[in-house]
Amino acid sequence: MTHRHLQFPRGFVWGTATASYQIEGAVHEDGRGVSIWDTFSHTPGKVYGGHTGDVACDHYHRYKDDIHLMKELGIQSYRFSVAWPRIFPEPGQLNAKGLDFYRRLVDELLKAGIRPAITLYHWDLPQYLQDQGGWVNRDTAHRFVEYAQTVFRALGKDVPMWITHNEPWCASFLSYAIGEHAPGHHDWREAIAAAHHILLSHGLAVDAFRAEFGARPAPLTPLGQGAAAGEAGDDVPRIGITLNLNHVWAASNSPEDEAARRRQDGFFNRWFLDPLFKGAYPADILEIYERAVADLGFMRSDDLPVISRPIDFLGVNYYSRDVVAAGDEGLFKVRHVPGGGPVTAMGWEIHPESLYRLLSRIRDEYTALPIYITENGAACQDVVVNGRVEDPDRIAYLEAHLAQCLRFIEEGGNLHGYYVWSFLDNFEWAHGYTKRFGIVYVDYDTQARIPKASAYWYRDLIQANLAMV
Ligand code: IFM
Q: How many CA atoms lie less than 13 Å away from 107 in the CB half-sphere?
């Protein structure tokens, strides 16, 4: 298979991503403490079939083989997350064995020539912090900085890419208002406070990062127009944040539907992009929250300058678009409408054009900073037949989204890399193990790894790109 039509500029980073609770297992090993996802998944009715992350992909024991497989596939960068409860299992108690695991992981990656990209928070908050209110409690932001500083010091110089948070929308609204994720609460005031404190902790961690590694490096310029990522001298540690963003469409061009589109966009996208890049919350959404919740006293006047501290890149997780019409229910009076296109096994509409629109919008309205697609991928109904997994739908999904990335780059967009979600099939949160996102199939009975056709397709695409430059 040739991929001439997907020829990316030199320096584009080809990656894949996972997260600690979704793959590691070994929840009682080497002094790990309890996280909110241990508690949540062990609470009957919260996760499909009572599935838990207790064993997951057993990556904690199999990381060497997993990295070996990444190397065979030609993966250039691996994005993983650190489990906070492995580092601080009890308040203020540093667990050297927990840090050692990530030290070994990073060493193994470096040995394989794979660039580590660390996410500090991918949702496994220590339970003892949740017992004090979790992200609703401002103090959690300070505990996060202590934890971040510890990991910066232990691994900083060997890790070029740092992501403070993964998808703050999920860690706040989906977790504290909608109740689908841990800790499973249904309280809008809590969710708004959680979002605020997560953003605050991000800004404080950026300050700690600069204190550790010095002044902000010159931002990477668009590929093909200067020094490229991965070139000599470019491996200085950089820090950013990953947001899950959806491009929102109105179901019709009526003013009512257009107003609904704007509200949904405000709830999902602008609530995070505006404070990070403009130093202010969007006034229209703030008004809705003030009316619904009244007391937003947890937002202090000097928080926004911290939240909007200059970062080095933006991570974007993109899966689907959102189509909305004016509705009667909920805080936002928005009704979600099927877009009409094909959907993945998650029921999410496949709409690659929206990725291009989203990237263009970020550039036009928010920032010229480098962007990485830190997650993109599809859950499919994968089956093993004669030891092979054919997943043409996933290949088509990845190819179509990469084509939109290339379109953005060819127009001068500052996109530097792409991480397929996910390397392995894994624990898909409230869906348990029923949704398979991996380019590598995991047989959960035997823990055998079977690279799917998409893994070989990705390998060939990477190789073809590197051969051409
Ligand atoms: O599995 C998740 C991941 O943890 C965060 N982003 C979306 C993925 C698919 O739902």
A: 7
Find where tokens 């130093």 sit.
Answer: 279
Domains and CATH numbers, the chain: 13-468 (3.20.20.80)
Q: Which atom of ligand 1 is nearest to the CA of 346?
A: 10
C-alpha 175: how far from its chain's center? 15
Burial class (CB in 10 A: 0-12, 13-18, 19+), 403: middle
Model pLDDT for residues 335-348, shown as the tens digit of each residue = 999 999 999 999 99
The binding-site residues of ligand 1, defined as CB within 6 angstroms of any ligand atom, are 19, 22, 167, 317, 375, 421, 428, 437
pTM exceeds 0.85, yes or no: yes
Distance, CA of 225 to CA of 222 (rounded, Å): 6
* CA 212 to centroid of chain Cα atoms: 24
pLDDT band at 407 (very low <50, low <70, confident <90, very high): very high
Residue 375 a catalytic site member: yes
Quickly list H helices, 52-114: 59-73, 84-87, 96-111
Q: What is the pLDDT of residues 301-319, one digit of tens each?
A: 999 999 999 999 999 999 9
Nearest Cα neighbor of 238 from 160, 321, 141 is 160
Choosing from 16, 24, 167 the residue with most ligand 1 atoms within 8 A of its CB, the one to mutate for a pocket test is 167
Instruction: Give the ligand 1 atom nearest the CA of 122.
Output: 4
